Protein 1
Amino acid sequence: MNRTNARWFLLFALILATAACSDTPTPVTPTTPTTLEEPPWTGTLTPFGLQSFPFVSTAAGQISATVFSLSPNDDSSARIGLAIGKWDGQACEWAVTNDAAAQLTVLYATATSGGSICVSVNDAHGKLTAPLDFDIRITHP
């Protein structure tokens, strides 16, 4: 094979290899899950009391409920029950609980799909001796 033929052969092979790779793949833009923050949920919990806050989560993902503040709580000893669960239209069916949540406690749960979710505060064990004001912060997908 002479040099001219070898060059043509090499050029032809290069063109074929380039043609096979000429399709530019379409870039895929990753989606970032959106985290929503509910307005602060505030209220007053009475001894042996229970309150629930229902909301709708639009997708699967992590839910958090933070005890932002408890008052009066001068010595930081106040504890409440905190729960995350599924809202059935009338009550909160607890899935994750903390029976002794202090100020700044964060409770996490994972929703497997969007739907009706709820957060509850309670004094199920009667540890409160007087009403206690609370501020709960909730994030969800």
Protein 2
Amino acid sequence: MSDTIARIKEPELFIGFVAPIGTDVASSHRFISQYFQAAGYRVVPIKVTDVFERIARYLPPKERLDRSSEEKRLQTFIKYGNHIRETFDDDQILSALTIVRVIQERIRLAGSEAVPERNVFLLSQFKRKEEIELLRSIYGRAFFQVSVYSRRGARVDYLARRFAQGENRGNPNSFRSQAETIVERDENESDRTHGQRVSRIFHDADVIINSDVGDDKIEKQVTSGENQTLQSPRKGARTLADNGFRGSIC
């Protein structure tokens, strides 16, 4: 008798976040998590950079990964992400490593023989179109790109405040130049073949969330689409529900 493949009644979902550095994505993460938890889904967050320190044991960075301040963490992690892509000459590699993490989490949560269902993986964050293309090719219609918007000035302000807090300084203005440099680099490292290209993939999203409008309106964007000021051109969808999430979880 041939083996049969168990039918997945309520399949897993995969949400890949794209956001320029300096965007406060915490509220978007929180409300999306609550949205799926209310529907009985298990939310599994995975950060792309979680594996960097493990990989660094085998592929030493040119500049040591440094968590001593937020500015140094961002600078050294950006450089190391580029170094990994350059070493393997592969702009999809960080997505591939994230997929491995997804497999590991499935096994940890349910065992290798379990049918994978009613999990939603929140994958943060991606910087190149090749990374998103790999995720779409693997997960198909179960993958959704969520881009989180924040205007450039707000991102610079947010980073400058974070840098000042990390240095126990009260005035963030002295950190604006460092914040500007990192924001510019994150948007488009045009001088590096394997650098970051956030500006080139942002508008390919299935859903775009405006993070500058406050928690109440962010929650409405996630759950009902009210007060949504941006619309994804990719599918013309405004909310998670519009994109088929509600159909997937009901």
Protein 3
Amino acid sequence: MNEFPSPTRKLVDLSKIKCVRRYYPRKTFDLFRVKRFQALMESGDKFPPITVAKDKTAIDSYILIDGWYRFEAMKALDLTRCVADVLDIEPKYFLLTAGRLNLHGQPAPTPEEVRKIIREDLRDQGLTEQEIEATLNRDSQ
């Protein structure tokens, strides 16, 4: 995945979006932040679109890649649809793409979270645990 794929912006039903914990690159989930986003949305503040990937296992279904807090705030507001940037990428790139998109988030991912993303991506590429450790240790020197 040398180039970041261009998304297609479209209106998506929230009920068609799945949140898969494996593709959430952070250790914790901040419910206070969801409530803050919800209040801002209620007062009319605009947010960027969430990012989803086409779910290749189901028709008209998506996997949430970026925007978990915004997604949860919209659900709490009983919204049924949202504008989303839709990526057409292979599932093996979901976690790496989620990590890449979350680099802009606040707070930024910790080094431990970045290592987790890299570790999972290497595992998805078929590397053994020994090869993963060698790669991570080589890259940190």
